[in-house]
Model the fold of this input.
Amino acid sequence: MTIREQAEQAAAAARKLAAISPDVKNKALNAMADALLAEKEAILSANALDIEAGKAKNMKASLIDRLLLTEARIADMAEGLRQVASLRDPVGEIISGSTLPNGLTVTKIRVPLGVIGIIYEARPNVTADAIGLCLKSGNATILKGGSEAIRSNTKIAEIMGAAAEKAGTPAGSIQFITSTDHKAVQELITLNGLVDVVIPRGSGRLIQAVVGNASVPVIETGVGVCHTFVDAGADYAMAEAIVINAKTQRPSVCNAMETLLVHKDAAADFLPHMLQVLKDKDVQIIGDETVCAMDASAIPATEEDWATEYGDLRLSVKIVDDVDAAIDHIARYGTKHSECIVTRSFANARKFQQMVDAACVYANASTRFTDGFQFGFGAEIGISTQKLHARGPMALPELTTYKYLISGDGQVRP
Amino acid sequence: MTIREQAEQAAAAARKLAAISPDVKNKALNAMADALLAEKEAILSANALDIEAGKAKNMKASLIDRLLLTEARIADMAEGLRQVASLRDPVGEIISGSTLPNGLTVTKIRVPLGVIGIIYEARPNVTADAIGLCLKSGNATILKGGSEAIRSNTKIAEIMGAAAEKAGTPAGSIQFITSTDHKAVQELITLNGLVDVVIPRGSGRLIQAVVGNASVPVIETGVGVCHTFVDAGADYAMAEAIVINAKTQRPSVCNAMETLLVHKDAAADFLPHMLQVLKDKDVQIIGDETVCAMDASAIPATEEDWATEYGDLRLSVKIVDDVDAAIDHIARYGTKHSECIVTRSFANARKFQQMVDAACVYANASTRFTDGFQFGFGAEIGISTQKLHARGPMALPELTTYKYLISGDGQVRP
Done:
């Protein structure tokens, strides 16, 4: 089947999916969870071949780990599907409504987006997550995973598709692109009229390639150059705990911190101990002139450093004049993801939260909380760093749109 | 100034605009209205040059009419700005919020999108409308109007920009692209990081060119191949009134009807009189075989006709087997704009409204009501025919996004 044919099947299925009951969808989600567990041997065998191929290509250990499936990871995937089944169904919610002066009733209801394309890398569990969330929100899915996980993903998608269809969802609702050719992505992201939105998940390079070349709408996710600004007179113990958490608890993820901004009047009291604690945690400091003068082991920061998502144990550190200078720095180098101020000043917290243009703006808490589960959404398909449609953690409602139902008794426009 | 420089100015202004008070914005809107009236002679002179140039190029009379400004039309533009000033400010609305188990408060608030690009054709009043709506919603604007109205638009934008700045809005909030080169559009729609969204308004060709070539997010507007389905046993007098209104009240607009679908069991009783009334209104019938057999003056419909937005007094007419066939036809040829069923059947109305995938789905009312003012929104920047971000009539809230403000007392992620 060509990718266009897959998209046509998905679009046809999406029309039916929009009208099936929550019961059928939840039954399908639980059936998919059962099937993943029942067929775990087949999944592990497929995964073993991917791992073998990765090792043969000298894939990095961290990538091998992301690619690896175990019984426990398969059990987590199944449990994730059951959790999605237990969430409230977003489809059909009446968002608002009114009766116009002429008697027409206008009802705004939540409906699925239609066909969602997901383009992702390495981790095979994304396959199960994305299928589950898209199905729950009444959408057909077209998945394009990375070539390194092609055997694992193909098997997972096949097992889940069969289970869902058996449970009563329309045939064709779940499409998996088996081609590992890059042209497949290009075709998928230009199928206007068939694909309603594409969500890329993965490296900045992947995301930029999709954003730059798509003609269907895209939701840009993920890249996070996140800052923490420590104000003068802040609770420095609190600031230290927040910085350590934001930088070191899981440095590879997008809500981890990349740059520490310190008020010039806080530098002498706060920085020496902070830098020592960071170094004790194996964090490489990349500093401006003042920081390098304070700490001989710091590497001088280049212009590029301020704009870089390190994704590991490196941290840029800069002294700024005041909260306004911090806000300006973030406007210039931030990626509109998650930004934090640590302060005792109500006025500065208020100004920072108002003026910083990002999905999540924190006062006195770690940026690591930017996450659909942490926010209590019960699910997450990604973190949007664009402003259109959805911003920040995206859960089920962000996979829907709305339509207006207008009912009358013969009204015409005067 | 290059277009990138204009966008940089707009982005810098947008940061300040996000934080100015509703009072300042409303004062600026009223000042812009005053300025348009005070300088109407200058606007009319500029417009006279555009009209002259249009006539020299043998521009169609209907286009000349769209281009023409009069004292009354300038007064309407000013009145529109005053109405926008009187609307509720969407910025800063608290959409929702919660306190997480760890004590963090999460507040979702409405904020401006940032920088909005508007690409449009012919009608100079769009310049005033777009500037007003974008300013009210706290956004900076970059306008690219059609070359045929360049003198009128430049003058209007100049007068409004000066008035807004004098009233206290940040310099650079309103950018007008004076170049009439098509490359200007291409540059504008690829300024990722500076332009947050582009809204094309105008012909299908313009919109497709923007959708196909943009890398910044686009809101697709406007093209409407709208259908009315007359069910068997419907109130045929009501159906006739709705069809006449939807087709002939203003045939050039996107919510006008292009195709009439008639249940086969309604054809004999309903169609002969309907076709006669349409012809009395100078509507050219383009019919399927059955319709052509009933009416010798009908032109046989081609495959292309079913997908065409005529925008004038032509109407495609087709007999269908039942409501399901009507839904299928609309899924195939509709543009997800506005669709209508005329019926007495509760079950068929319910099915049609559920299954038809369009921004506005009507039961027993004219599709001509798809309009921000008709819906009581108080404003309209366009009608979205895509599903991402906004659908149907877009007013002030659709020109905003949201962000999460998270406040705590030192929470870190376990």
Observations:
- DSSP finds 15 helices and 16 strands in chain A.
- Chain A touches chain B through 68 residues (CB under 8 Å).
- The longest helix of chain A spans residues 22-38.
